[in-house]
Structure to design on (253 residues):
């Protein structure tokens, strides 16, 4: 509710009680709409299907069912949790294996495509994915992914190879762990100097950097002041040299 009041209009969650509270997002959305702060059509709600290996005992589906049925059950559960009739973006919460696409992934994606056909989800995407897996999905998919959501880490050159592929394929790259995954690298003087130059915080510089590279940065803060800061990145522009400095960062750890 605080995030909506602060100005956020897009929310990412998952039907994975081990790490997310999807019902909490739904309660906040319902309360905000009821109070007149926002209309449903002004919000962008994204959630995910998570395989059993990524879940705890609180499964949103019957594990004895086939994957197609599991997807349908998970979507029905998400719609109930969120208090909506459609999901703006539905994400496969990572492939079932470390490399390549399995038959399970293909079956799951087909079930997601069917959900999109039925109007239960507007857009589809995939997270925690490798370049070879995205290429395989693009070859197999009837409905192509609109989004890729990955950890964007300095030690992987800010996920350069994946970002390049996404740009080529007109896929929106959603970046997470921009701060938590790069703590040591962001302590370097060259980063703090850029922040001081613009009278901004280091997180604001990182989010602006991501934005200028064509990424959609995700923030998971629960602090209202940090929420405001996260949205306050549109009154400055990084120079070419500053962007190159950030691109060249190396993780000292």
């Amino acid at each position: 509710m605080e995030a909506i009041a602060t100005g956020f209009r897009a929310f990412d969650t998952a039907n994975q009680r081990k790490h997310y509270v999807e019902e909490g997002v739904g309660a906040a959305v319902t309360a905000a709409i009821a109070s007149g702060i926002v209309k449903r059509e002004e919000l962008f709600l994204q959630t995910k299907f998570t395989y059993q290996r990524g879940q705890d005992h609180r499964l949103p589906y019957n594990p004895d069912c086939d994957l197609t049925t599991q997807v349908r059950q998970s979507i029905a559960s998400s719609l109930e949790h969120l208090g909506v009739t459609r999901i703006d973006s539905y994400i496969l919460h990572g492939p079932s294996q470390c490399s390549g696409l399995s038959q399970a992934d293909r079956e799951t994606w087909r079930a997601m495509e069917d959900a999109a056909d039925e109007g239960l989800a507007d857009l589809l995407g995939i997270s925690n994915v490798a370049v070879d897996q995205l290429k395989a999905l693009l070859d197999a998919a009837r409905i192509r992914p609109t989004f890729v959501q990955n950890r964007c880490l300095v030690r992987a050159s800010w996920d350069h190879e994946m970002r390049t592929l996404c740009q080529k394929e007109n896929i929106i790259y959603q970046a997470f762990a921009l701060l938590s995954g790069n703590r040591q690298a962001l302590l370097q003087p060259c980063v703090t100097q850029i922040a001081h130059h613009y009278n901004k915080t280091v997180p604001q510089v990182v989010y602006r950097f991501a934005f200028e590279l064509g990424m959609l940065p995700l923030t998971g803060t629960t602090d209202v002041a940090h929420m405001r800061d996260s949205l306050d990145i549109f009154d400055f522009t990084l120079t070419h040299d500053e962007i190159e400095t950030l691109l060249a960062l190396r993780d000292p750890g």
